Amino acid sequence: MHIRVINPNTTAGMTATIGEAARRIAAPGTHISATQPDAGPVSIESHFDEAISAVGVLEEVLAGEREGVDAYVIACFGDPGLMAARELTRAPVLGIAEAAFHMASLISTRFSIVTTLGRTGIIAEHLLEQYGFRHHCRRVRAAEIPVLDLEENGDAALSRLIGECRRARDEDGIGAIVLGCGGMADLTDEIAREVGLPVVEGVTAAVKLTEALVGLGLGTSKHGDLAFPRPKAFTGRFAHLSELTPRR
Amino acid sequence: MHIRVINPNTTAGMTATIGEAARRIAAPGTHISATQPDAGPVSIESHFDEAISAVGVLEEVLAGEREGVDAYVIACFGDPGLMAARELTRAPVLGIAEAAFHMASLISTRFSIVTTLGRTGIIAEHLLEQYGFRHHCRRVRAAEIPVLDLEENGDAALSRLIGECRRARDEDGIGAIVLGCGGMADLTDEIAREVGLPVVEGVTAAVKLTEALVGLGLGTSKHGDLAFPRPKAFTGRFAHLSELTPRR
Amino acid sequence: MHIRVINPNTTAGMTATIGEAARRIAAPGTHISATQPDAGPVSIESHFDEAISAVGVLEEVLAGEREGVDAYVIACFGDPGLMAARELTRAPVLGIAEAAFHMASLISTRFSIVTTLGRTGIIAEHLLEQYGFRHHCRRVRAAEIPVLDLEENGDAALSRLIGECRRARDEDGIGAIVLGCGGMADLTDEIAREVGLPVVEGVTAAVKLTEALVGLGLGTSKHGDLAFPRPKAFTGRFAHLSELTPRR
Amino acid sequence: MHIRVINPNTTAGMTATIGEAARRIAAPGTHISATQPDAGPVSIESHFDEAISAVGVLEEVLAGEREGVDAYVIACFGDPGLMAARELTRAPVLGIAEAAFHMASLISTRFSIVTTLGRTGIIAEHLLEQYGFRHHCRRVRAAEIPVLDLEENGDAALSRLIGECRRARDEDGIGAIVLGCGGMADLTDEIAREVGLPVVEGVTAAVKLTEALVGLGLGTSKHGDLAFPRPKAFTGRFAHLSELTPRR
Amino acid sequence: MHIRVINPNTTAGMTATIGEAARRIAAPGTHISATQPDAGPVSIESHFDEAISAVGVLEEVLAGEREGVDAYVIACFGDPGLMAARELTRAPVLGIAEAAFHMASLISTRFSIVTTLGRTGIIAEHLLEQYGFRHHCRRVRAAEIPVLDLEENGDAALSRLIGECRRARDEDGIGAIVLGCGGMADLTDEIAREVGLPVVEGVTAAVKLTEALVGLGLGTSKHGDLAFPRPKAFTGRFAHLSELTPRR
Amino acid sequence: MHIRVINPNTTAGMTATIGEAARRIAAPGTHISATQPDAGPVSIESHFDEAISAVGVLEEVLAGEREGVDAYVIACFGDPGLMAARELTRAPVLGIAEAAFHMASLISTRFSIVTTLGRTGIIAEHLLEQYGFRHHCRRVRAAEIPVLDLEENGDAALSRLIGECRRARDEDGIGAIVLGCGGMADLTDEIAREVGLPVVEGVTAAVKLTEALVGLGLGTSKHGDLAFPRPKAFTGRFAHLSELTPRR
């Protein structure tokens, strides 16, 4: 089984971190390839960054389709391009926010999210709403760490994250914590150890969930509203998408 | 007041239709400029088309900012790039789905949506949910008309639309109909006449709502989660966005 | 265009304040007439005050219909008599709570309400629920100012309001504030200046929204549940309503 | 225990019907007095009728307070003036829609409402929403009978009602039916017999619920938002309310 | 009328307390019999305790059916076995959490729950959700008292409860308090006196509600999903249930 | 990894069917043991059957704990005893309704459920609500097949199921179907082939989800409301549970 883990930003260090975390958790027969778009933001901290990153995500999926990839993970906590990516393939496609919410709700009745910047909280709120987990999440918390600080300023970032997770544990009436950024994929174990309650991280959760779906023979439904997009012309810089769009 | 009406697809005929509808409804002092992206899909009929179109929408907003535009309308019923566009400006930005839902809920207690293709219904459902109108919409109906048929095959499309609107009127227990595509902007009056209940169309609704917001001195809040994106590098084909992102 | 702004209470000073605020914001071609009922409470601070005031509101609408008024604004934050008023006319009718919620949700993702007395918070909660904005409002706050203090004790009231608005800005994770009383219509600018984020006030919001609706040729739907009331006898002190009820 | 059953319309025949139904169901020690306002609509079939009727309802409650009434029932299915009435007294006040919803949800998992005119369905929908029963009600059905036909045209009305109730039973997947008009209070038994599943009627339900509350020593809370209205002046035709408003 | 009040735990002292509270509140013609299962947990403080206790509750209902009992109350705040019990009888069956929520929502717009242990809060949350009262309950609070402390350590428990109720009154913006444990049935009056706002207790509420339902001739619907279970074999230790299941 | 699949009913044939389906889908390193309670109903078709079956489920979990089982699946579509079972172990515990809802929502935007008997639909509705999937499920359909017919009358049952699934596919606007009974575990492939859209079955879904959770090192949270039950005495026939309750 070949899972393509797509880091929607263009910071190679983060792609490596995410890829490693994915590989560590993958089942023996699972091949992980971690990629990132050619073009886009170096980190994703706003709706704008997300919208731009979605193009690269979709091109990575189209590339994966040519290579026969079996499943996709979109490794940014806002799940950029998720619905669009599902239209492009029969394979399962998972977002890491989505994956983390599902897993957290299976081991606890209520969870909190600890994310990077407060301004991205609204993205998590919209996803909780759309996916059905609004009432399972007690609170969206931010450690107010810029995403790239997780790479560049690791110790300080980790210690702020642990502090915020402890406050979540003590104040929110929860059973689990969801980490709100793909860049935290390598910190999960240490945070869990320090905080002492289950900590769910989306990259790893998504890898195991896609393995599960592939194992079940389940992929994105092509009946109804996630069917392949109708073939059509794209113009200008996106003209290549007229070709790339899958057509069967 | 200068309102930029952005047609997110790249079909010039539709941009013209939308622009004219906007001009017809605009107040005397309002200047309407209708634009379309350089690059993108010729019509928007899926999440994929939407995600790609969002890039062009955002670039149009960035261009508008350099020109001193006062307000923006995103003239596709899926409101592509809406939240991201809001981050880029202090001006109001409205989506046409959003605008139509608001207006319909002010003149009726319950409405139905009549859109083009059934597969886009889920996009409307997600927006109704996020904006708060889930319980105000009785039903999302599709006439199963491809978007460009509105341009190329106008009479047949119109007659199918009128048929579906009549069924909505007679079966759904509603007070108003929302037309679910920017390309229907020039059909509103005829449909309303044939169907005999208020028909709300998003382009026109959005123009009047943005005039209202500008009149009130209200623009997109820069306090909190719609603040300008944090400045950062974009790579590759999107490198120009490192420059373009507003920074005050 | 003739907009009738109805102050549901019988305090002439407040009618004047509201009328002036409406006139200041109205478009050049808009004529504002501000009225108040002959009879009713001098201020509205409870469900009881609201229920009594609704009669006067409805009589003002019936009077407006005889005069050919084009649109109505009900200028009390509980929107007293709103659904009933809509039944009486083909014109648009807007409540100021409703108008403010709509406008605030177009420029921010989440807002808080700052109202007069805590006991009226439940009225706002019920309206948020009915209109669909429950999840857009983070918190309903009260400055604990009796409504008439806004008239009689302006400076102290203003300073309490500003204090409460600042707390909302700093603690609630919001992008905008909704002012929760028609009597605050003349304070918006000063509050906005002091607090530094968008402040949405209902009277002005409603005037611009009704202009927008009239501009669109949209009025209250007479198809379905907002149709004119069935003609019928009223007895006693309300016998005149047998005559007044519109009948076409 | 003295329960005042207030018929919000001014049709004496309906007051008598309602009073009798209440008396038949009341416990031995319960005294029922059925009253109607001096002034108002002869039937209630719209938001407008409701808003006007609320004044009479509230005056009946104020009169009841002077007489030492122990509990109130508002016997119209839209529960006109309910929240306002609660502010006026320490006694329990129940609406009949509310009472019927509560009782139906205790003996079935899902119910349907069968009411008079389709246009009043929205009133029921708003109440279901506010009270918390939206998901317990499968469908709001109308027999399209004007309210006074229940008085004047009893047999035809009854047969239409039975027909609609049977359709509800067979098509809606429910366990109980709620009758949607106070004027049906004397038809419950016959309908239940004909339809063969529990039929909940609001007047009788409300009488038993108020007996239950009084038996528990529970009355409307005066802590918080249902406290007595703040004393204030009312003007014109409502000047007497300045006096009447309770003040302890 | 014979109401069987079932204490789902096996602590006789609590059965006595509950029975007495029920008798004190019952109408003259009501006979109360308080019972407890032969087997089960001595107190109920978890989902596990609840699940085990449900068996005893259901056997008590089956026993009651043989004795001609007219109505049942399940006197534990998690309403264990409620839906199942309803299937076994035409009589009304009420849970005390359910009963308390209904009554509290009739005398206040918002209430808080004060329960024993924090860990049981999730049970109350799930019930609020299923019954429709999620938005009527501001907060679920726990005094962190083990259930049996109410029996064995009464004074300390009472004083903690009163403290928590006062905090609810002062901080939650509520009109009433719901006591979250059947074992508090004898403390209601004292708590209400100390706290000064309506305090709703479930055992007493349920007794009066079942009297009301019986008075109305309403019992659990046998049309649809609460019909008698299909007859079938039970094996092993539960073989006797093959016999006991009602069959008409 | 040792997964215990618990068939909550006592029909050995169904345990075998479920166990085989689980084994076919399990990963190479996964050991499946399929068990059933000593005592309980031979099939589960009501709340009553469910409540009784929960005891056996919980005893199977306690037995599993003594044997060092790594994860549990409760293989009945009502998820009987799920929350209680979670309290008993650090291992993951999944219900099959839950598992199927999660998986279906990852490959489609909307699904329908096809279950056995209409009367069990309410159980699915309550679970959808509690888990957060109410809006993802378009419709709960029943083929009106008694559970044991799946064993004893396989061909007729299969053909009814396929018919109902086809209607779901054609009428419901969905992307996937959830099979609503553990006894359908061996029919999934054939139904999927006949119906032509993804069919999600709970036993298999739950096995893969538990493998995923175990792979992630995630188990039921012992922080907060799913902590081990407080140790306590159980009486009578349940006295052995005083011993069995886990205590660390």
UniProtKB/TrEMBL annotation, chains A, B, C, D, E, F:
<dbReference type="GO" id="GO:0036348">
    <property type="term" value="F:hydantoin racemase activity"/>
</dbReference>
<comment type="similarity">
    <text>Belongs to the HyuE racemase family.</text>
</comment>
<dbReference type="InterPro" id="IPR052186">
    <property type="entry name" value="Hydantoin_racemase-like"/>
</dbReference>
<dbReference type="InterPro" id="IPR015942">
    <property type="entry name" value="Asp/Glu/hydantoin_racemase"/>
</dbReference>
<dbReference type="InterPro" id="IPR053714">
    <property type="entry name" value="Iso_Racemase_Enz_sf"/>
</dbReference>
<dbReference type="Pfam" id="PF01177">
    <property type="entry name" value="Asp_Glu_race"/>
</dbReference>
<dbReference type="GO" id="GO:0047661">
    <property type="term" value="F:amino-acid racemase activity"/>
</dbReference>
<protein>
    <recommendedName>
        <fullName>Hydantoin racemase</fullName>
        <ecNumber>5.1.99.5</ecNumber>
    </recommendedName>
</protein>
